[in-house]
Design a protein that fits this description.
- The complex is a heterodimer of chains A (317) and B (276).
- Chain A is mainly α.
- Chain A has 13 helices and 2 strands.
- In chain A, a hairpin with an 8-residue loop joins β1 and β2.
- In chain A, α12 runs antiparallel to α13 (287-316).
- The longest helix of chain A is centred in the middle third of the chain and has 34 residues, at 90-123.
- Chain A starts with a helix and ends with a helix.
- Chain B starts with a helix and ends in a 7-residue tail after the last helix.
- Chain B is globular and about 75 Å long.
- The chains are: A mainly alpha (317), B mainly alpha (276).
- Chain B: InterPro entries: MetI-like, MetI-like_sf.
Chain lengths: 317, 276
């Protein structure tokens, strides 16, 4: 048998027989003898997703209707009591308001700055990779470490921010221990980080614009802001939606920087949804209420995600 | 190049350098404080350029924040999670990209929907569940919820889709079974996205704070960010040089990894936006 016919026979063997029983479900790569293979390959991952993603989401819903002792022991049905308590709690009101302020103050500027920086990187001459590296670094930074550093930069005594104020002849500010400035200081760190993430994603998005587009606009003489508005932004729409969804979920779930910098204080002035949930659950040991807050957050962010996904499908189709 | 182009590039470069300086300043201030003598710091403040160097801060930080143990724990937890995620994500991505089977669409939907469920917000209920299993305050508990990653499955699947069917057929005719094909054909082709996902996983879990904060009560299983936060909460609140040194130690591994493999990471991230 010649080589050619041998391989032809192999191809014929690999091609599913038309109308045959097992061929109907034959996998594309042709392991029809082992129909269980894909399920076995998926089993560990699926089991883990059910246990650790769907399970907790469901548990937060169930748990929100119970009084739960953290030390173990039986759960006590509480009806809607946890929700009523959450909605009546001034700490939660403050946290909800602060989370809204934090979100607005970080999301919009970080998206605008991130886009501008990504565009700027394309315009920079030699050495732009150095600037890129520097600007992406905040994204990889450990936020507990950065919160510690920011706490020192904004320390009342000896902090760099107050040194600068001193040079300008202004009185020092007790940034983190005053109710008026604590949230603002946390926002600065959140913005520093979020801008870096937005820029990275916009940079990735910009690379997907084919160079022929840039050539065509150059030929047409479309440049600067006009090019941004009429060509670049429309092509970046999927990236913009994705960055927006990611920014919202990131901002609404802000936790470590608040926990390390201010613990939500002073007097709740920088409390956010997650720090409040953590406090309610693990300082006041009201796990049922913490579950209710978690469930509200999950439902809210799920809605944001679903809307974002619909937007993107609509735009790409 | 025209003069106006040159002016534009120069302007862009100047702005870029300013932005980069702002991005780097906290890192610089961390290192600058970490080498400053501890005495008189809060009364005089610090100059931008260090005058005297005092490296003993690092030793004090290492001892007081129990960083030796914490770094070992961090490495064990991060690598443990990474290995488990690769072991679960690679086969799952392979099944979802190279097999046709009943329920494939539904299962892909289940994976994609996980990307929409916010991770920090599920941590408290996850902890409630883990506590029911009696796994609070254990190393296993630090790793267990992260044995797989929906984003990982998705990233790897996208790349494996690009493996040509002809190659799969060739592997089959060479007598390779599905697992051998995965190991010797698909994984090498998917290597760039495996590398990018691995970095994302390492960044995420080395830096994670909320989950270890909930789970790790005993000091001997604490991870670096948790040890740092505990060190800060302790009475040493004003020992900024030691705190900064500890922060630098905790930050360093991930930053070094990023600088070494930056190109893979940025390129790999380009594919993730389809996921959200």
């Amino acid at each position: 048998m010649s080589l050619l016919t041998r391989s032809a026979a192999k191809v014929a063997a690999a091609t599913p027989a038309p109308g045959g029983g097992p061929a109907k479900q034959a996998p594309t790569s042709g392991y029809s003898r082992q129909p269980l293979t894909p399920y076995l390959l998926l089993l560990p991952a699926l089991a883990a997703l059910l246990l650790f993603v769907y399970g907790p989401a469901l548990l937060s819903l169930i748990g929100s209707f119970f009084v739960i002792p953290l030390s173990g022991g039986s759960w006590k049905y509480a009806g809607f009591n946890n929700y009523l308590k959450v909605f009546a709690d001034p700490l939660i009101h403050q946290a909800a308001w602060n989370t809204l302020v934090y979100s607005l103050a970080t999301i919009i500027p970080s998206i605008v700055l991130g886009l501008l920086l990504a565009l700027l990187m394309e315009k920079m001459g030699r050495g732009s990779w150095l600037a890129k590296t520097a600007l992406i670094l905040p994204m990889t930074a450990n936020m507990v470490a950065m919160a510690v550093v920011f706490k020192w930069i904004f320390a009342f005594q000896g902090g760099f921010a107050n040194q600068l104020l001193g040079i300008a002849g202004l009185a020092p500010v007790n940034w983190l221990d005053e109710a008026d400035t604590s949230l603002f200081t946390v926002i600065l760190l959140g913005l520093w980080r979020a801008t870096s993430l937005c820029m990275l994603l916009f940079m990735a998005g910009l690379t997907t614009i084919p160079s022929s587009i840039h050539e065509a606009t150059a030929v047409e003489g479309i440049r600067g802001f006009t090019k941004l508005r009429t060509v670049i932004l429309p092509m970046l729409r999927p990236t913009v939606v994705f960055v927006t969804v990611l920014s919202i979920t990131g901002a609404v779930q802000v936790f470590e920087i608040v926990n390390v910098m201010t613990k939500g204080g002073p007097v709740g002035s920088s409390e956010t949804a997650m720090t409040a949930a953590h406090k309610v659950g693990f300082e006041y040991f009201r796990i049922g209420e913490a579950s209710a807050i978690s469930f509200i957050l999950i439902a809210l962010l799920l809605a944001v995600g679903v809307i974002g996904r619909q937007r993107r499908t609509k735009e790409t189709s | 190049m025209t003069t106006s182009n040159k002016v534009h590039t120069a302007l862009a470069t100047a702005l870029g350098i300013m932005a980069a300086a702002l991005a780097l300043f906290p890192f610089y201030w961390m290192l600058r404080t970490a080498v400053a003598p501890a005495e008189g710091l809060t009364t005089t403040g610090l100059s931008l350029i260090p005058g005297e160097f005092d490296l003993s801060n690092f030793i004090r930080a290492w001892d007081k924040a129990n960083l030796g143990q914490a770094m070992l724990n961090g490495i064990a937890v991060t690598l443990g999670i990474l290995v488990l995620q690769l072991l679960t994500c690679i086969p799952a991505a392979y099944a979802l990209s190279k097999f046709r089977f009943r329920g494939a669409g539904f299962i892909l939907g289940l994976v994609l929907a996980c990307l929409l469920i916010p991770n920090q917000a599920t941590m408290i209920p996850t902890f409630v569940g883990l506590n029911l299993l009696g796994l609070g305050d254990t190393r296993l508990g630090l790793v267990l919820p992260f044995v797989t990653s929906a984003i990982g499955i998705f990233m790897l699947r996208q790349q494996m889709m690009a493996v040509p069917d002809a190659i799969m057929e060739a592997a089959k005719t060479d007598g390779l079974g599905p697992l051998r094909t995965l190991v010797s054909v698909v994984v090498p082709i998917a290597a760039p996205s495996i590398a990018a996902f691995s970095m994302l996983s390492i960044f995420t879990h080395w830096n994670d704070y909320l989950w270890p904060l909930l789970v790790a009560r005993s000091p001997d299983i604490m991870t670096p960010p948790l040890s740092l936060a505990t060190f800060q909460n302790a009475d040493t609140g004003f020992d900024y040089p030691a705190l900064s040194a500890a922060a630098a130690i905790v930050t360093a591994p991930v930053i070094i990894l990023f600088l070494l493999a930056q190109r893979h990471f940025v390129r790999g991230m380009a594919g993730t936006e389809v996921a959200g």
